[in-house]
């Protein structure tokens, strides 16, 4: 965007202000027109209006069931990965040995495509929530470990010297200095992880599930109910966006000092 | 070791003593020394400045007195005891104010107690308020550090170092991040604080005029490996003010030091 651009007429100002929304609306209209006048069949690319109507083809309570199933798995996996990642990062920061032993293992886990491992996890843990939560956790926890560790290591050295000059116990150095300093990093990790959590939940549902939006999309596609599949996809995007936003709200509410300064 | 009193209170007791101090970070023989052959006694309530070019090991010296770094050669003593670890009666003011951005000014001042003991009492809080008042910061006590100017932040840094009432105050280029005007003002403020709460001060700076303006004696260091070029007595009368800067003696002293910095091989 050109920062020096100053629209002068009222109309130009409004157009400038709503440019992102107008762009989006334009895109949807274009899509609708292509489908209508290009005679694209609904089972190849459904038009926006067909997708809209598909929302009503499925009972509201069914939608809620699918939404809740995906959200539940995503959140459980996300929370589990926080519970694992943060203590793990503290341990790796405090102990050179732990860092040397665990870091290669983490890299191996991260480099293995979770989609490929998912069926094996289902075999191991069964087709219920635990395996889906584990799959989600495997996808989400690496960015958290990296961001937390980076944040704690980037604590200003003078701050650590202050702690040493007071001969304070190490756990207070971690708890009162390093972890708060890592908060901005932890939150950027959380923002990455929360969107990955939805991906993890959907991957798990593709492999084994009887409910959830991932399952619903796969099921609809296999019956050529493509507009329904798109409707499910829209729900997925919406919860993903809302979760991402919630992380930002939590940071702004509880840790306002950790946000970049607005000038 | 916490309640060690000085050996002698006649005013000339060496509070801080460095004997043939040298340091290298790497013990292999071919690696160069950072500082070398430093001998210095700092007396009770004396204000000693250390000046020298960047990288001459000024900060290394301060960290040795603080007990954050044990010298590889020679010995640093505080109150006649070799320094083996940080002591409670030594306070440090860092180059950047080093405040915790998530704590209010008052809580930052109280942080050393919170950090060391996990708590502080109502009387500690009273002391923090008194110190803040002395530094003219009362109205900022409940503000966050980023709402304060750089000069204000460094005042908080000084107040924090005074909280545990240290006998010795170590200052590591405390005003180097400030603009020239703020810098001069906060220097005078420091002298006021020092008059009211006399401390033995070791003040690291790369500003020659700041060293002359503030201190009783100046240790001039060579470039790396840092050695003592001269130990200069600053015989300017106290209290010092902006008038001091205009006095001929001030110019003589700064010229003398400047001579060392620019022509390090010419003897005085």
TrEMBL record, chain A:
<feature type="transmembrane region" description="Helical">
    <location>
        <begin position="102"/>
        <end position="127"/>
    </location>
</feature>
<feature type="transmembrane region" description="Helical">
    <location>
        <begin position="21"/>
        <end position="45"/>
    </location>
</feature>
<keyword id="KW-1003">Cell membrane</keyword>
<dbReference type="GO" id="GO:0055085">
    <property type="term" value="P:transmembrane transport"/>
</dbReference>
<dbReference type="InterPro" id="IPR035906">
    <property type="entry name" value="MetI-like_sf"/>
</dbReference>
<comment type="similarity">
    <text>Belongs to the binding-protein-dependent transport system permease family.</text>
</comment>
<keyword id="KW-1133">Transmembrane helix</keyword>
<feature type="transmembrane region" description="Helical">
    <location>
        <begin position="133"/>
        <end position="153"/>
    </location>
</feature>
<dbReference type="GO" id="GO:0005886">
    <property type="term" value="C:plasma membrane"/>
</dbReference>
<feature type="transmembrane region" description="Helical">
    <location>
        <begin position="188"/>
        <end position="209"/>
    </location>
</feature>
<keyword id="KW-0472">Membrane</keyword>
<feature type="transmembrane region" description="Helical">
    <location>
        <begin position="229"/>
        <end position="255"/>
    </location>
</feature>
<keyword id="KW-0812">Transmembrane</keyword>
<dbReference type="Pfam" id="PF00528">
    <property type="entry name" value="BPD_transp_1"/>
</dbReference>
<feature type="domain" description="ABC transmembrane type-1">
    <location>
        <begin position="67"/>
        <end position="247"/>
    </location>
</feature>
<keyword id="KW-0813">Transport</keyword>
<feature type="transmembrane region" description="Helical">
    <location>
        <begin position="65"/>
        <end position="90"/>
    </location>
</feature>
<dbReference type="InterPro" id="IPR000515">
    <property type="entry name" value="MetI-like"/>
</dbReference>
<protein>
    <submittedName>
        <fullName>ABC transporter permease</fullName>
    </submittedName>
</protein>
């Amino acid at each position: 965007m050109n920062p020096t651009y100053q629209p002068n007429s009222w109309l130009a100002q409004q157009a400038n202000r709503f440019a992102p929304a107008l762009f989006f609306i334009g895109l949807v209209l274009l899509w609708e027109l292509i489908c209508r006048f290009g005679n694209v069949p609904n089972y190849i690319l459904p038009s926006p209006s067909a997708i809209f109507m598909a929302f009503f083809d499925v009972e509201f309570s069914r939608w809620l069931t699918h939404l809740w199933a995906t959200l539940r798995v995503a959140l459980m996996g996300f929370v589990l990965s926080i519970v694992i990642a943060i203590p793990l990062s503290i341990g790796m920061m405090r102990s050179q040995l732990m860092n040397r032993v665990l870091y290669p293992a983490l890299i191996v886990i991260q480099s293995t495509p979770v989609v490929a491992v998912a069926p094996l996890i289902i075999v191991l843990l069964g087709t219920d929530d635990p395996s889906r939560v584990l799959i989600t956790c495997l996808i989400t926890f690496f960015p958290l470990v990296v961001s937390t560790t980076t944040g704690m290591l980037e604590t200003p050295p003078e701050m650590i010297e202050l702690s040493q000059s007071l001969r304070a116990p190490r756990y207070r150095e971690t708890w009162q200095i390093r972890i708060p300093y890592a908060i901005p990093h932890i939150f950027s990790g959380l923002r990455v992880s929360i969107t990955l959590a939805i991906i993890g939940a959907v991957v798990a549902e593709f492999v084994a599930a009887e409910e959830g939006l991932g399952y619903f999309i796969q099921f609809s596609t296999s019956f050529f109910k493509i507009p329904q599949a798109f409707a499910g996809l829209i729900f997925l995007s919406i919860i993903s966006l809302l979760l991402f936003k919630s992380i930002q709200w939590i940071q702004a509410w509880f840790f306002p000092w950790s946000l970049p300064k607005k000038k | 070791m916490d309640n060690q009193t000085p050996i002698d209170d006649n005013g000339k007791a060496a509070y801080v003593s460095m004997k043939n101090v040298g340091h290298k970070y790497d013990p292999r023989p071919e690696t160069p020394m950072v500082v070398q052959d430093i001998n210095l006694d700092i007396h009770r309530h004396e204000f000693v400045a250390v000046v020298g070019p960047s990288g001459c090991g000024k900060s290394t010296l301060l960290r040795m007195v603080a007990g954050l770094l044990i010298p590889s050669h020679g010995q640093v003593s505080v109150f006649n005891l070799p320094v083996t670890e940080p002591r409670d009666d030594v306070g440090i003011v860092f180059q950047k104010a080093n405040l915790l951005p998530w704590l209010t000014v008052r809580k930052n001042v109280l942080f050393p107690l919170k950090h060391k003991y996990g708590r502080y009492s109502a009387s500690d809080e009273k002391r923090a308020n008194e110190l803040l008042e002395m530094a003219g910061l009362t109205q900022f006590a409940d503000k966050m550090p980023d709402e304060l100017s750089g000069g204000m932040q460094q005042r908080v840094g000084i107040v924090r170092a005074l909280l545990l009432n240290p006998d010795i105050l170590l200052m590591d280029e405390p005003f180097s991040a400030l603009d020239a005007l703020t810098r001069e003002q906060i220097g005078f403020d420091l002298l006021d604080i020092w008059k009211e709460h006399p401390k033995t001060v070791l003040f690291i700076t790369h500003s020659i005029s700041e060293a002359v303006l503030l201190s009783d004696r100046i240790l001039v260091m060579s470039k790396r490996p840092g050695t003592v070029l001269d130990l200069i007595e600053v015989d300017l009368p106290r209290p010092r003010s902006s008038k001091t800067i205009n006095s001929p003696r001030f110019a003589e002293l700064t010229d003398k030091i400047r001579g060392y910095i620019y022509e390090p091989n010419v003897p005085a």
